[in-house]
Structures are given as structure tokens and as C-alpha cells.
Specification:
The complex is a heterodimer of chains A (about 280) and B (about 290). Helices cover about 70% and strands about 0% of the residues of chain A. By secondary structure, chain A is mostly helical. Chain A folds into two domains: about 55 residues, no CATH class; about 210 residues, MetI-like fold (Orthogonal Bundle). In chain A, helix 8 crosses helix 9. The longest helix of chain A is centred in the first third of the chain and has 32 residues. Chain B has about 290 residues and is mostly helical. Chain B has a single domain, classed as MetI-like (MetI-like fold), CATH 1.10.3720.10. In chain B, about 70% of the residues lie in helices and about 0% in strands. In chain B, helix 2 packs across helix 13 and helix 7 runs antiparallel to helix 10. The longest helix of chain B has about 30 residues. Chains A and B meet through helix 1, helix 3, helix 4, helix 5 and helix 7 of A and helix 1, helix 3, helix 4, helix 5 and helix 6 of B.
């Protein structure tokens, strides 16, 4: 009994250390964001607890930067991306799971092959196509949002996740619905879609996180500051407040609050390990 | 089963996704190869066909080798650490101890937070008179230019990538550990095996496929690093922290040298496709039921 206890203590010590290392960069950022002008943020030894405690950096950065605007832009982009992913993945996953048609195998491998194509390697032509389709914010805001959303509107992971979900539904469900007079469209939306809700939820959550954190693409296509999503806006803080680390820190923390709330509310989806297959690498 | 759908129904269901995939995946995929044979550097609106000239330029460019080398250093350091350390953590967490959920949440937190915020947080730790240099001087060493010294910049950025990935791979390992039969551990306990032999003889062989999976997916994501470098170093100093994707970005969107950038993209495509093929056909076959 005693040896088990001791072993547990070592386990806890290691896990506490790793946990602290995981959150320390944020703690240090929070600490800096709460330090007033009379406190030297480069003081040796560094002070975790601010001696000149203030919220002024938060109000200061809030007044200069349109966080609400960035937040709304991020919500529109992430929301749009999630909705399109749910609809397009489910619609594509269904025939791949349940129907027989000419070219099924080819379609299957075509979808599978997109997994191997990293966005970073094709972003240049994607950009040229986006320009050609006028999906840019210099046309208008709606087209700008479309340009942010459309390249990520569907992907192979989502299609395979939904295909897997439809494979799990007993065939009798479909037969019963058809006998009751449903056509295939009604069957899909009214009978099958409600049955794959758990998979839709997983797809929605991971698509949301991915879209919310996306940085490369928006920083390529966006030209107007009013269209900035949160990651682009946060990166821009560095240019706006060049060496004012109090403001940069406060702004970074402010921008992190929404996703932190989302994570804590949905944590079981992330840390249970059940949805390992749904996450993109 | 009777056929309840019309001849065109499957195609109509597939159509919306197909349109997106064709426009934003397949056309760009082939266009990347096409662009790599064109020269845009004289007139961006009037590219001319130059055959393999971009590839020749690429292979004569010392920065290309530097960038390739940096990317491989990224692979050689980040991938083994991300394949082994999270497994160790998962084994520790996968015990009947208190506070497991809290540990998991805290260790997973870096995964969820925007890479831009993470990079800024680390930039602050790495500042010349920052907290990390304080710790270094406390140990009697000279302060380090974490992001300004060409000998250190790349490694400083790699640390951020590793720090941000640990929680993600730990959860993948935890899921795999749940599938190891409990009886085997009980047998070990009866035999009086210690912690190390228990995991070397039972855990590791059982989750070998997952270790291989984590290796390939962390290798693929190491090939695609961009935001950390963009936010922290812009590839500098002296190209010391520049990787393939950052170089593509720079040549394409800053120098508008689309042909050269596309030749670079083709190289990236080929490397990632090799990793992906290994991944799909060796480790994820069941997921796609090939």
C-alpha cells in the first residue's frame, strides 16, 4: 500500500510540472497584462504577481482595437465554415455509404486523395482562383467572407466521418421510411440526419476549432482591417503597439477568452479520446 | 435491398461537395504543377513558359537547401519528441489517480489556443531581457538571443511547436491505451513486474500502430509549419528559422515570384504525399475501410 502511495506522489509531481509548463506562457502573459506603467516588466527577478496591479492595459487596448469586430468576423467565418461542412459532408457521405452508382470507387479514391494534398502546397493557385471568382474583401464584405469560407467548406475528413456514421444506421430504417412514402430527399433530411447527430456534433466542434484558429489563409486574402479575424487581429497587435508588451499581452488574452470558454464547455469532446479520428492532423 | 432512389440521386447528393473539391483542391493541385513551369517574375500578368527553369533556379539557390535542411531539423527534433513524450504522459495519466481531468484540460490547453497567441506568449518569454534569460543567467550562463541568434532561432521555434502538440498526441495515446487488455497488466502485477518492464512488454507492443500513426501525422504537420515562424521570426535571422512553407509564402506573396514558389510547392507536395501514403495505407486503412 505504501509503495503505491509513493509512486502516485511521483506521478502527481510530474503531471503538475507538465501542467504548469503547459500554462506558464499564458500565466506570464496575464501577469504582464496586469502590470501598470510604474512597474518594470523587465525587472529581475521577474514578478509573477503584479505590484502595480491595473486593468488599464485591457481598457487601453480595448479602446484602440476593434475586438468585437474581429470576434464577429471570426464567428461569421467559423459559423459559415461549420454549416457548410455539416451539409456538404453529410450529403457526400450518404451516397458513399448507402448507394450503388457508377464511379463510386473513383469518387471514393478522389476524395481520399485530397487528404494527401496539403493546403500550404496549393494555396497559391487557390489564391489565384479566389481572385478570379471575386471572393475577396475588395469587392465587398460578403464576398470577402465567402473567400475565407469556401476553400474550407468541405474536406475528406468530414466526408469520411459522415460516411462512417451513415454506415452505422440499420438499413431497415430506410426501408420503413420509403414504405411510409418518403422520397430520398425527405428520407435524408428527416430520418437519417437526426440519427447521425452525434457525428454532426463532433464534426461541428472540430471544424469550428480549426476554422477559428486559421491564420495563414486569412492573412493572405484579407486586405481590410475591418475584415480581420481574431488570429490576424492579434498578430496585428505586434505592429500596432511595437514594444508595448502590456497592451500586446492584454490584447492576446482578450482574444483568447472566447475559445477558452468554448473549450471548457465542450471539453469532454476534446479530452475523452473518443473523437480521436475526427481531428485533422 | 430494393433500390429506392433514382438514377441521378447519388450524383446530386455528391454535387455540392464535388464542386468545392474540384475548384479548391483538384484544379489548384494541377495548376501548381502548371505554374511551376511558368515565369511570372518579369510580368505578373503575362507569364511565359520556361520549362524546368524554375526547378533549375531552385536547385541552384542556396536558400532552398537552407530551408530544406531547416525543415528536416524540424522533423528530426519535433517528431521523435512528439511521438515519445506524450505517450509517457498518457501512461501516467491513465492511472486511477485524482485530478486526471484537470491535468488533461491543462495539458490540452495549448492545443486549443490560437497559434498566434501561443507564438506571442513565447516571444515574450524569449525576450532579450525576458524571464527565460533571467533563468539562464541564474544558472550562471550568458543570456541567449533566443529569436535573434541564428544558432538558436530555429530551435526556439521548434519548442513552441512541440509545446503546442503534446496535449493533442497525449489524447490520441490515451484513446489507444484504453484498448490494451487490463488482464495483461494484472498478470504483470502478479509476476511482480515493475513500472518499466510492464510498459515495455505490454503497452508498447500493443500500441505500436498508434506510435507509428503519431509519427507520421506529426511529421506531416511539421512539414507544414508556418504561423509560429511568421509571428516570431519571419524566417530570420539570416534564414536560420525559415522552413519550406514560409519560403513559399515569402516568394509568392512578397516577391510575387509565382513560378519559383510553385516549384517549391511541388517539392512540398511530393514530400507530404509520401508521408500521407504511408499513413493512409499502413495505419489508417480501417478508418477509410479500403
Amino acid at each position: 500500500m505504501k509503495s503505491i502511495k509513493i509512486k502516485n506522489i511521483y506521478t502527481h509531481i510530474i503531471l503538475i510540472t507538465i501542467s504548469l509548463l503547459s500554462i506558464f506562457p499564458f500565466i506570464w502573459l496575464i501577469s504582464t497584462s496586469l502590470k501598470g506603467n510604474s512597474e518594470n516588466i523587465f525587472a529581475y527577478p521577474p514578478q509573477i504577481i503584479p505590484s502595480d496591479f491595473t486593468w488599464a492595459n485591457y481598457s487601453g487596448v480595448w479602446n484602440k482595437v476593434d475586438f468585437i469586430g474581429y470576434f464577429i468576423n471570426s464567428m461569421i467565418v467559423a459559423g459559415g465554415t461549420v454549416i457548410l461542412n455539416l451539409i456538404l459532408s453529410a450529403m457526400a457521405g450518404y451516397p458513399l455509404a448507402r448507394m450503388e452508382f457508377k464511379g463510386k470507387k473513383v469518387t471514393f479514391f478522389a476524395v481520399l486523395s485530397t487528404i494527401m494534398i496539403p493546403f500550404q502546397a496549393i494555396m497559391l493557385p487557390v489564391y489565384l482562383i479566389t481572385l478570379k471568382l471575386h471572393l475577396v474583401d475588395s469587392i465587398n464584405n460578403f464576398m470577402g467572407f465567402m473567400g475565407l469560407i469556401m476553400p474550407f467548406a468541405v474536406n475528406a475528413f468530414g466526408i469520411f466521418l459522415m460516411r462512417q456514421a451513415f454506415l452505422g444506421i440499420p438499413k431497415e430504417m430506410e426501408e420503413a421510411a420509403i414504405v411510409d412514402g418518403c422520397n430520398v430527399w425527405q428520407l435524408f433530411w428527416k430520418v437519417l440526419m437526426p440519427m447521425v447527430k452525434p457525428s454532426l456534433a463532433v464534426l461541428a466542434i472540430f471544424t469550428f476549432i480549426g476554422s477559428w484558429g486559421e491564420f495563414l489563409w486569412p492573412s493572405i486574402v484579407l486586405t481590410k482591417e475591418t475584415m480581420y479575424t481574431l488570429p490576424v487581429g492579434v498578430n496585428n497587435l505586434q505592429g500596432m503597439f511595437s514594444s508595448n508588451w502590456r497592451f500586446i499581452a492584454a490584447g492576446s488574452i482578450l482574444a483568447t477568452i472566447p475559445i477558452l470558454i468554448f473549450f471548457l464547455a465542450m471539453q469532454r469532446y476534446f479530452i475523452s479520446g473518443e473523437n480521436e479520428g475526427a481531428v485533422k492532423g | 435491398m430494393f433500390k429506392y432512389y433514382g438514377k441521378y440521386a447519388p450524383y446530386l447528393f455528391l454535387l455540392p461537395a464535388a464542386i468545392v473539391l474540384v475548384i479548391f483542391f483538384f484544379i489548384p493541385f494541377f495548376q501548381t504543377f502548371l505554374l511551376s513551369f511558368m515565369d511570372y517574375s518579369h510580368n505578373i500578368y503575362k507569364p511565359e513558359f520556361v520549362g524546368f527553369q524554375n526547378y533549375i533556379n531552385l536547385f541552384h539557390n542556396p536558400v532552398f537547401y537552407k530551408v530544406l535542411w531547416n525543415t528536416f531539423i524540424y522533423l528530426f527534433i519535433a517528431v521523435p519528441i512528439l511521438a515519445i513524450f506524450p505517450l509517457f504522459l498518457a501512461v501516467l495519466i491513465n492511472q486511477k489517480i485524482r485530478g486526471v481531468t484537470l491535468y488533461k484540460i491543462l495539458i490540452y490547453l495549448p492545443v486549443i489556443v490560437s497559434i498566434v497567441v501561443a507564438a506571442i506568449a513565447f516571444k515574450w518569454l524569449y525576450a532579450d531581457q525576458g524571464i527565460l534569460n533571467y533563468i539562464v543567467t541564474r544558472f550562471g550562463m550568458k543570456p541567449v538571443g533566443w529569436l535573434t541568434d541564428p544558432d538558436f532561432a530555429l530551435y526556439s521555434v521548434i519548442i513552441v511547436t512541440i509545446w503546442k502538440g503534446i496535449g493533442y498526441y497525449m489524447i490520441i495515446y490515451l484513446a489507444a491505451l484504453m484498448s490494451v487488455p487490463k488482464e495483461l497488466y494484472e498478470a504483470c502485477d502478479i509476476d511482480g513486474a515493475n513500472f518499466l518492464t510492464k510498459h515495455l512488454t505490454v503497452t508498447i507492443p500493443h500500441i505500436m500502430p498508434t506510435i507509428a500513426l503519431v509519427t507520421t501525422i506529426s511529421a506531416i504537420s511539421a512539414m507544414k509549419v508556418f504561423a509560429e515562424i511568421y509571428v516570431m521570426t519571419k524566417g530570420g535571422p539570416l534564414n536560420s528559422s525559415k522552413t519550406i512553407v514560409y519560403y513559399i509564402y515569402e516568394r509568392a506573396f512578397e516577391n510575387l515570384d509565382l513560378g519559383f514558389a510553385s516549384a517549391m510547392s511541388v517539392i512540398l507536395l511530393i514530400i507530404v504525399m509520401i508521408f500521407s501514403l504511408i499513413n493512409i495505407f499502413c495505419f489508417e486503412k480501417h478508418k477509410y475501410q479500403i
